[in-house]
Amino acid sequence: MNINYRKITKKESLKHFKNIDVNGFTVIKNFIPKKTIKKYLELTKETFKKQKENTKTPKVWNTAKIIYNLQSKNISFLKIFNSIFFENILKKKINDPHFRNLEKNKPNYILNNLIARSSGNGKLFLHIDSGIPTGDITTFIQIMIPLEVTNFQTGCTVVVPKSHKSKKFTDRKTKKFTKIEGEPGDVFIWDGNLWHGSLPNKTNNTRWSLIATFSNWQFKQVFDIPRSINQKTYKKLTIKEKTLLGYLAIPSKSEYKRVTRSISVRQLEKNVSNY
User: Fold this and answer.
1) Which residues contact 193 (CB under 8 A, 6 or more apart)?
2) Distances (CA, A) of 159 to 13, 62, 174, 200, 212
3) Is 26:20 a contact under the CB 8 Å cutoff?
4) What 3-state DSSP class applies to 20?
5) How far apart are CA 99 and CA 163, in angstroms?
6) Integer Cα distance of 213 and 117 in angstroms
7) How far apart are CA 227 and CA 69, in angstroms?
8) 197 contacts 126 by C-beta, under 8 angstroms
9) Quick one: CA torsion of 264, 214, 149, 200, rounded to 10 degrees?
10) Average pLDDT per run of 10 along the chain, which is 275 residues long?
11) In this structure, what are the phi and psi dihedrals at residue 234, rounded to the nearest 5 degrees?
């Protein structure tokens, strides 16, 4: 699916980079066409209906609707994040400049997690997705695409500005947070060190959003993404997509196969079952 993202000027791009650096987050208005958003909302609802009821959802999220591992459900969920603007931010913030198995200017960060979420009647406490509050060093970036209206009533995301530089785990009692409200087609981007959570949904409506978590390639993915892709999809993936899904960073099964933590493109397998 080809997506006609709104053009971002150099001046606007610099503003968003600065917002992420200074405040830990930024909001891009009207970035994705409404027509595209409508298709993805329909796909998300269809996927949710097909989901098995025994999905292991943490208790803290037990009132929310969640679809995990979206890239293994339909690779189209990954393709909506295929924007040069996103890529430029991700390369600047979490690319490894010393990665040996790709050219220096190529993206080598990986998809750490990809979900769809609709807030439930319980709030999601403040947390960080980096796992470790590294302060000035960014290891994770999250990109959220609202598929429906997200506001105070529907359980929008809340963030604590500048908390990404605190080098501290979250203070879950703080009330000094900012609500991130928006329309379908807007995009929210934040540093993985930023304290964030969500408010309870006070309506009977859903508030579906796509949330992609990207990380430096050396961090463990939430799921075994490379081995969860079926062979039919794998054959259609580009080298760039295989890199993003983590195929160059699969750990070796033993020291007799290899002792390096990453592989080169020429070492990619023809079949998923060989990994």
Assistant:
1) 24, 128, 130, 133, 134, 135, 138, 139, 140, 163, 164, 165, 166
2) 21, 21, 11, 14, 17
3) yes
4) helix
5) 29
6) 13
7) 12
8) yes
9) 140
10) 92 98 98 97 95 63 84 96 97 96 95 96 93 93 98 96 96 93 98 96 96 97 95 96 97 88 94 93
11) -55, -40
